Amino acid sequence: MSHSPARSGRRADARQNAEKIVQAAVACLGRNAEASMNDIAREAGVGRVTLYGHFPSREALVEAALIRLLAQGNEVLKAVDLTGDPRDGLRALVESGWLLIAQAASVLQAAQTALPSGRVQELHAKPEQRVHDLIRRGQAERVFRVDIPADLLASVLHHILHGAATDVVAGRLDPTDAPRFVAEMALAVCAVPPATLGTD
Question: Which residue ranges does the record assign to the HTH tetR-type domain (predicted)?
Fold first, then answer.
């Protein structure tokens, strides 16, 4: 059964409106974690009826914005070569992902307020798996410390990244210095303690 041109046109318009709304949410929440649905509707150039027709609550829209940013970040990070020395991989991963994390800091702040903490962790699970796997390989190759669980090291790195992003947003850290500082801190956290070097 074929669809009428009018119905197909309405569906295309609906998809276009939904895309505009998510893009507007990313932009508004990126500037202000407390941006309202009205702010986002104005940014998208749509009315409240259209906005709520696609996203029935602010929570749903905040989640869609975070999912969009995480997907964009995943595309960038997939291109990072992690096959060599895990220390080089960690530095490349941090430096490549830094800008994305900084841009997402305000959106993440909105998500942490609007969404259950378990949901935020669930959405981050796939991107963070890349870090966990790299740390475990570094531990297996004895270039990362093994006295602390990989999951805990990854959690510490997560807090370093988002803490630095918060400082950039607050004007306490120069964004041009942040990638180097964060990479150095990440490597320091994972480094094998000097007392254990050369021991079995």
Answer: 15-73
Answer yes or no: is pLDDT of 1 > 60.
no
**Among residues of the chain, what percentage have pLDDT more than 70?**
90
CATH number of 58-196: 1.10.357.10
CA distance 42 to 15: 18
Angle at Cα 42 formed by Cα 39 and Cα 45, nearest 5°? 150
In CATH, the number for domain 1-56 is 1.10.10
Dist. CA 60–CA 29, nearest whole Å = 13
First-to-last CA distance in the chain?
A: 70
CB distance 123 to 67 below 8 Å: yes
